[in-house]
Amino acid sequence: MRRLRAVVAVALALGAATGASAYQPRVNYQLQCMGCHHADGAGEDGRVPSVRRSLVPFSALAAGRDFVMRVPGVAQAPLSDAEIAALLNWMARNLSDVPVPAGFVDYTAEEVAGARHRPLASVREARNLLLVRLSE
Ligand code: HEC
Fold first, then answer.
1. Which of 9, 52, 109, 115 counts the highest number of beta carbons within 10 A?
2. Ligand 1 centre and the CA of 52: distance in Å?
């Protein structure tokens, strides 16, 4: 029993030391996104949009989810599909002025995998179309 416990302890220590995927979404946000989007997600006027009023409403539309997973900062982040999904779900719950609705559909690794490798032709145009749809 003691030996088993030692083996488990070593395995856990190795996993923590080697697995980048052991990072929590909050840490991934700090490392990969915060430099542009700032700690609270508010971004920078004229340069980086605030996710505080866009992420949750965008996430309610198929086209909005598609957009969010394909913007360069998300699609090209050095994170796995599962990490991206967990990160977007964390952002929706922690960096949004718009509360996550009861029926909020969490992003999944499969969904991210299906979207992130298709580059957006025009990021600005896609975003403007979404804003028009949300205002209708
Ligand atoms: C180099 C700066 C930069 C980094 C790093 C970055 N982004 Fe972005 N992000 C932008 C800009 C600029 C936009 C607006 C779309 C565009 O031009 O790419 C954007 C758009 C977005 C959007 C859509 C929001 C909206 O209202 O249009 C989301 C969601 C997002 N980023 C999430 C992330 C996440 C998550 C990360 C980290 C994994 C990240 N970004 C890293 C600059 C960045």
1. 115
2. 12
